[in-house]
């Protein structure tokens, strides 16, 4: 795999050197999980992509699994409510009537 095959954002986050021997010596078991393209025994990168892609699609095929999880604000202690009051520019209801959780759309 060439570095051109990896998306630019990943290249900013990761730094892959051409010689992995130092890493293999310092990190026990690394060679077993690294892809063959990097001198490891973990199989080709494309194989991992295909495998995890199928598992990911199956996991989310019935909708977002965490959509039904909600916070019960009635159980939050009064001392933990309205932390946004520290920020003068913040709207008091920004985090809801009470609490520090913001409900996000799972699609975001």
Overall structural class, as computed from helix and strand content, comes to mainly alpha
Average pLDDT, all residues: 77
Biggest pleated-sheet summary = none
Shape descriptor reads elongated
Task: Characterize the quaternary organization of these chains.
Answer: single chain
The succession of helices and strands, N to C, reads HHHH
- Spans of at least 5 consecutive residues whose pLDDT stays below 50 are none
Number of domains as seen in the coordinates: 2
The gyration radius over C-alpha positions equals 22 Å
How much helical structure, as a percent, in the residues?
25-40%
Tally the helices: what do you get?
Answer: 4
- Percentage of residues in strands: under 5%
Q: How many β strands by DSSP?
A: 0
Q: What separation lies between the terminal Cα atoms? A: 31 Å
Describe the protein.
The protein is mainly α and 108 residues long. The protein has two domains: 3-59, no CATH class; 66-108, no CATH class. It is 29% helix and 0% strand. The chain has helices at 8-13, 21-26, 30-33, 45-59. It is elongated and about 55 Å long. It starts with 7 loop residues before the first helix and ends in a 49-residue tail after the last helix. The model has no long low-confidence stretch (mean pLDDT 77).
